[in-house]
Design goal:
With 244 residues, the protein is mostly helical. 67% of the residues lie in helices and 0% in strands. The chain contains eleven helices and no strands. It is globular.
Length: 244
Amino acid sequence: MKEKLYTIPVNEAFQADCECPICLMKKTLEDNAIDFTMGPSYMEDDVRAETDKIGFCSHHIEKLYENQNRLGLALMLKTHMDKTIKDIEKLANTGKVSSPSLFKKKTELSGVKAYIDHIDNSCYICERINNTFNRYIDTIFLLYQNDDEFRNKLKQSKGFCTSHYGLLYEEAPKHLKTDRAEDFMKSLNFVYLENMKRVRDELEWFTDKFDYRYVNEPWKNSKDALPRTMIKTNSLINKDAVSK
């Protein structure tokens, strides 16, 4: 299949020497989203309108703080707080406070609580990531359906983290024709399990090296086994654990 602009990030991730190419793609999207948000764009009206409305999740507010553009972050949070105060003042003054009732459905939410739940479950960075990330997942299946070279890349990869293995496992039947889906599932299961066992064994040797009986033995491939295990088990990817 001829390389296209939208297939480049997927092919590059699967060419990388990493424990989960999907984690790598998501980390790249996160870095790009943070750089975009903390760059000159935070002064643009359309961006500011969105950050004022939905704010950021706890994970990404910390990432934004680490970016060091403290003025930009302060300006965004100030206008987000302005909107939140204004909206809650309006909602809090529109109805009477009532005591809980045994006959009131637990699913019913006050305007204030519904508003806060929306903010708590919204994040400007997450939305930017997910919009592109979902297209990347679609592209993985498009390439597997039509590209022999990509199929080989997946089969020769170091597998996936458990979360993204589950994602591919669930999505495969929705994207692939029956014969290709069966081949994909066979390859997916193999690369996931074989590479989980590989990293598990490397982690075990890492722990053995703390035993005095093995102090003079070589580290083999286990020195970075712990951060690579964290990718496999928790999709936790950082600059030091992206690749070997």
